[in-house]
């Protein structure tokens, strides 16, 4: 019994130094530095603005006969919105037409008198001044006829204003008047009409960013072509990309920013006038750059660095210089080459110089 106990103790003593000295090799996850497509981007706060928005007003006075639209619905250009009673305008037009007929007859008589006087002058039966008077009377009759025809055209225009139509397709607002109301040029807005498709988003950009961007374009580091992407107030991504169509030539002195505008298709009316959105400007054409997962980068007083696993499966510390971040990957401008394996998981378990058991993470897509 004693020999058995001693044997077990010897075995335990023999195993103790090995278990105390031997350390399990730390397991880490590594990812290779690799060339991926990178699109430079920047994010800004923006506000949605309707491409067109107007107050619909009456241009002539009269009692309202019809409200021809449903509030808050889309109407096409030329659609009838309001109809004003037009009896007085039609009667006035008929009266002017009668005056035109009388004036035309008067002009005919004046022309006949002028021709008669001309014949008498030719025969030397009357003095020249009588022909001159007849010619002047004809001119007066023709002038009156022309004036009345102008009045008729003006009256036709007034009559056309009794039908208030949509100047462009858009969404109607609330009507401020009902059938039977007396409306006119002084009545104010009867409703609003808002064009939501296409729609615009304006956003201020710091002057320093504009200058830096222009310098990078001049050096050939970035493309000047960009697309605009939107994030809505609820965090959803707007599915349609827009194009920048305006950059202000003036700097806002209070904020030292430049106003930029992008235009978007809005077929479903998702973007509403006045809404706040997040705008991301992104290069239209991507560029190849050396990148690593963002979580591999650490920082201290010396700057940015990574821990990588070398060919001997040992950890190295490497200072790097970084650029922009895109989709969870960061651009490395100095310090690494393609294929270097940086540690992305298990960083807190290792230190430079120790051996590790490295498993490779899936390559970047």
From TrEMBL:
GO terms for biological process: response to antibiotic. Gene3D superfamilies: 2.40.30.170, 2.40.420.20, 2.40.50.100, Helix hairpin bin. Residues 1-22 form the signal peptide. Residues 53-183 form the Multidrug resistance protein MdtA-like barrel-sandwich hybrid domain. Pfam families: Beta-barrel_RND, BSH_RND, HH_MFP_RND, RND-MFP_C. It is found in: Cell envelope. Residues 94-162 form the Multidrug resistance protein MdtA-like alpha-helical hairpin domain. Keywords: Coiled coil, Signal. GO terms for cellular component: cell envelope; plasma membrane. InterPro entries: MdtA-like_b-barrel, MdtA-like_BSH, MdtA-like_C, MdtA-like_HH, RND_pump_MFP. Residues 288-349 form the Multidrug resistance protein MdtA-like C-terminal permuted SH3 domain. GO terms for molecular function: transmembrane transporter activity. PANTHER family: ACRA/E-RELATED COMPONENT OF DRUG EFFLUX TRANSPORTER, MULTIDRUG EFFLUX PUMP SUBUNIT ACRA-RELATED. NCBIfam families: RND_mfp. Belongs to the membrane fusion protein (MFP) (TC 8.A.1) family. This is Efflux RND transporter periplasmic adaptor subunit. It comes from Paracoccus litorisediminis.
